Amino acid sequence: MAGAGSMKRAASPARASISPPPVKRKIESTTTSKSVASFFTPASQKKPEKITWRILNNSLIIGRYSTDSVDKQPTEPGARRKIAAFDFDSTLIATASGNRFARDAKDWKWWHPTVPTRIKELNSEGFQIVVVSNQKKISLQKEIKGGRSESKSLTTFKEKASAVMRQLDVPLSLYAATQYDEYRKPRMGMWKELVEDYDLDVDNSLDLQSSFFVGDAAGRPGDHSCSDRDFAANIGITFKTPEEFFLGKPPEPVSRAFDPGVYIKEEASGPKPVTFEKRNPLDLVIFCGSPGAGKSTFYWKYLQPLGYERVNQDTLKTRQKCIKVAKEHLAAGRSVAVDNTNADPETRACWTEIAREHKIPIRVVYFTSPSELCRHNDAVRAANRDLNPESRALLPGIAFGDFTRRFRPPELSEGFQDITRVDFRFEGDEEAKKIWRQYWI
């Protein structure tokens, strides 16, 4: 087959002399006088784009809509700024299709017809309007890898959010967290960023008492989480659901799956922290407990000073390597603490067999903390360098689910000399306590 470059259109038949001359087709120009004028306008004289976007730390999407007028500023001397913050989906907007997730950038409508009117009223009252949203379905992988093109999910979100901002037409900033990191609600990363963006972190210029946050994740029956209510609690501002704020409905009952404040309150009246005493010249101690239960902290505080060598699979990577290192320590006359989860009898049987081989006692330290508490501990640890001496990364949810699935409480009948039970008790200074009692999951 001949290449495209060799193909020629067949010649037209000779035109009859009585035919009129061909009419020259008029080409419509798509260039307007306005665009021509804009092209030749110096950059210093052009109006800035109303909507700008940036991505922070390959994680946080920030959009800003600016109107011709400047953002509202306090007019009275000493007046402070007020924030009116909103979740995005199921608070300001809903899907027009009725689907849980939008089909495309046009699949949206106002959550209620009063939403745009109420937002404009808040702007005229001097509130700075911000949107704070978790958007885990947005992929930033192309941006992370240095690609030039955006992911489809990011493009769709920006188109939808831009349409919403244009219809509201008030000065507004939008913050969207795409990862499970410090920006994701109920963690305060997005709030801290917007406070810095508006210079509200200086001279006590933010009026927290008058600021508020509206969101649908409120811990009510049927809500997917309590992250919006917890986010507002972390900041210290008033929280309302969309039904309460836009429709004037009364508050509904709230049930939190986990409240760290409960553990802080129990601290004063609870039992004293469990300690650990060495009972044998040479022995093997294994820990049993979920990730995030405080096993490593317990080792460094109580067993390391007693001369126990630590064996930890996070460090050694495989169980076989743990077994090898443990046997070497025991053969050299050094007691060993196995700082692993050891969730089930089958796993623990491996260590009881090693104890029998070396003719030494084996003991268990059993950490009883429930899964939600351990996930909280893990999140606090991963997000706060001062509370994370081993620089541990945030664990995936599967790590906790796998432990829960396999877990069976240790029993003396498995061959243990004794079982030391360790119930959670917060230990730390006031600054650490302030951080720990926030909502993180």
UniProtKB/TrEMBL annotation:
Tagged with keyword Transferase: yes
Pfam families for this protein: AAA_33 (PF13671), PNK3P (PF08645)
Composition-biased stretches (Low complexity): 9-18
Superkingdom of the source species: Eukaryota
Region (Disordered): 1-33
Keyword Transferase on entry: yes
InterPro entries on file: HAD-like_sf (IPR036412), HAD-SF_hydro_IIIA (IPR006549), HAD_sf (IPR023214), P-loop_NTPase (IPR027417), PNK3P (IPR013954), Polynucleotide_phosphatase (IPR006551)
GO MF annotations, alphabetized: kinase activity
Alphabetical keyword list: Kinase, Transferase
PANTHER family: BIFUNCTIONAL POLYNUCLEOTIDE PHOSPHATASE/KINASE, BIFUNCTIONAL POLYNUCLEOTIDE PHOSPHATASE_KINASE
Protein name as it appears in the record: DNA kinase/phosphatase Pnk1
Lineage: Eukaryota, Fungi, Dikarya, Ascomycota, Pezizomycotina
